[in-house]
Structures are given as structure tokens and as C-alpha cells.
């Protein structure tokens, strides 16, 4: 499976189908009163629509047709950067490099403040979100040479954690993506996003009966009880 087949069905105008509900951000948006639209350049696992959807909407596929129409995805190139493998990880890193270096990825328009909030959590402290200019693939001859401003996540966790080899998107899709969003999916950072969204909606801050903190306390209590029992 190549990149074109993954984003082709996603490329459409930003509008809602006539029979669909109004285009609004998902109910989990922590910024319900804002309508800011963001454009981001993705070069790794988030180039795969199922992974992107899982991060911003909580499911590997759009929850409704209206959600599907919110994003416009196009192939693009980021110059002056290089993409490399991260040691022991399925995902890559992008770092500044020589002017002739380039990274191919996807340009995603229509992201909300809430989407970016989730993406920041997903990327974590290993990356820093920065403003860049990317060239839209196939639009080189248009005004401005097809360049647009976007945001991307640049690796800041140190060169010592990177391998010299280029990261392979096709290999990720064929060999790795199943454990991110397939039936055998592992956490892969999604839990941090889910917990953050739950905390926004939970007035107890995770301390309620089914909250994350409550579960940790319950586990700790059982372990303490077991330890006391074995000491008798």
C-alpha cells in the first residue's frame, strides 16, 4: 500500500454533505467555543488516516460523514529537514538539516484547536511543534511555488536516540500499523490522549469511582493488603 492510496479517499472540499449534521468539532473538544483552523504537516505514523483519526477522534475511522469532511489531506514536501528512525520505535523523527534535504509527507488542513491539543499530547515531550513552510506536491507551478505555512513536530529528544537510516512509511503500514489501530492494537501513546480527554470531562479529575486515580489507589490498596497478609 502506498501513500497515495491512503490519502486519496480523504482529499475533498471542506464542507458537510447535505444530509449530514452541521460541521462541528467532536464533543470531546476541550475548546468548544473556538473555531480556529490549523494546518499541519505529518511525516510519520500520522500520515496513515486511521492513526490520525484515532488520535483526534478516538476511533480509527471517522465517527460520522460530517467528521470525514472536516479534513483536507494533500501530499507535500518539507525542505531543509531529514527524517530518521528512532531507536527501538515504530515512529520516526524529523530534524533540521541541509537546504537540499527534503521529507515527503501529508499536509492536513481543517484541524481544530482540540485536535492540536490531542496531537500535542500524543507526540509528547520528544517533539516540539514548530511553524514551517511546506511545498504542496503537484502545485509547484502555482503562485508562491505551491508553498504554504503549516505546523509540524520536530524531534528534540537528542541525536543519540536516532538511527542514520531513513524511516519507511510503506514498511510501517504493512508490518507495524496493525498493532497501532488493528485488532491487535497496543497503547502506542493513545492512552495518554484518552486519559487527558477523560480528565477534561471528569469533574473528579480521575478520583471518581471509575477514574484513573481511583483505579491506581484500588490497585495500591490491594497490594498493601496482600503484603500485610503475608507478613502475619
TrEMBL record:
Residues 1-31 are annotated as: Disordered. InterPro entries: AIG2-like, AIG2-like_dom, GGCT-like, GGCT-like_sf. One of its GO terms (molecular function) is transferase activity. Coiled coil: none annotated. Residues 41-168 form the Gamma-glutamylcyclotransferase AIG2-like domain. Keywords: Transferase. Belongs to the gamma-glutamylcyclotransferase family. This is Putative gamma-glutamylcyclotransferase. It comes from Epicoccum nigrum (Soil fungus).
